[in-house]
Amino acid sequence: MSAACIGSMVSVPGHWHPLDGGITAPAGFLASGLTAGLKPSGKPDLCLLLAPEGATCAGSFTTNRVRAACVDLCAERLAATGGRARAVLTNSGQANACTGERGLIDSLRATAALADRLGLPEEQLLICSTGVIGVPIPMQPLLAAMQPLVAGLSPEGGAAAAAAILTTDLVDKQIALEADLGGRVVRIGGMAKGSGMIHPAMATLLAYLSCDAGVPAPVWQAMVQRAVERSFNAITVDGDTSTNDSFLAFAAGEPLAQEHHAALEAGLTAVAQHLARAVARDGEGATCLIEVRVAGTADDQAARRIARTVCGSSLVKTAIHGRDPNWGRIVAAAGRAGVEFDPQAVALWLGEHQLMAEGQPLGFDRPAASTYMRSRATGAYLRDDTIEIRLRVGEGAGSGTAWGCDLSDQYVRINADYTT
To answer: Are residues 293 and 222 located together in one domain of the fold?
Structure first.
């Protein structure tokens, strides 16, 4: 799905403009995706992204203590090479987590086979897995697919790659932006997957980003980490953090002057936020996106913490699914976020409807507020499918935003029989 097709797209900063092409829109990046027979559904399940020579890669990974071997392998190789990586292989259908020694052995076998096909050092190859925990990768079909996977690499392969990483997702998630920075065109592309087991602390989510401007590895890693804090660590679907969450961002090309780094980071953050919001909007069983904006805290981190807590509240999520403007659940969630603020300073809005001021309830048109919620919860991926909640908790300079989705009976049905 192109950037223009996904609802609730973030505003594009500065001179950045959307374009088609997804992960392969930046110059020099190639991708492929195919059906290797790893999933019983017969859907695409194997993806390869190849970056140009000299690429720098920054990663952000799950904080879950139970991690798939591929996560540790990626982190170790990036540390050992100083952020030098050329390719990432992704299998969909099996998380290959909690599979004992076999998990690491299979990850090493897969990257070794790919290194041989590409003629690259093994330490520059990464691997990500997504799917059912406790299920190993079917290695025979995966290894058999290496030749056609490499042969299929193409600058037009972004869409096929984005489709091959999906599991319970209903739509693929892609975006690309370009800007004129210092007289040269710079492009950033991205793709992601995720629908359930999504929560801050890297949330089952995989995301990849490509950029055709060269940036020193330490600078790139810092940019990526800040972007993650404002995107993938600011979404929640169900409060569960996966064993496999990984975000890998590649930068390769002519070095970009330091004076343009701020503009580049703005584009990087916009791409990451678009993908993160698309993941939240595609939450299992969801009918709308929830956006919570908080202001008035001592710092931005505190504001984001309140916003994430509100987004993650099951009571808030179910009220929104029922189109019920039950504002007490919102302020109760804010109050348990672990952030100091004066309850008498709280102001609250649901869309254009103000529900509280100075810590006191206001009379509001409840049927109109419900109508606003119903109009945004259409079940379709439209630009107006976001229910907006705004909280002001004081006069501080801090502000932050988080995104989530409503909680429906379909979420229970999807996950109740996920493996049966």
So the answer is: no
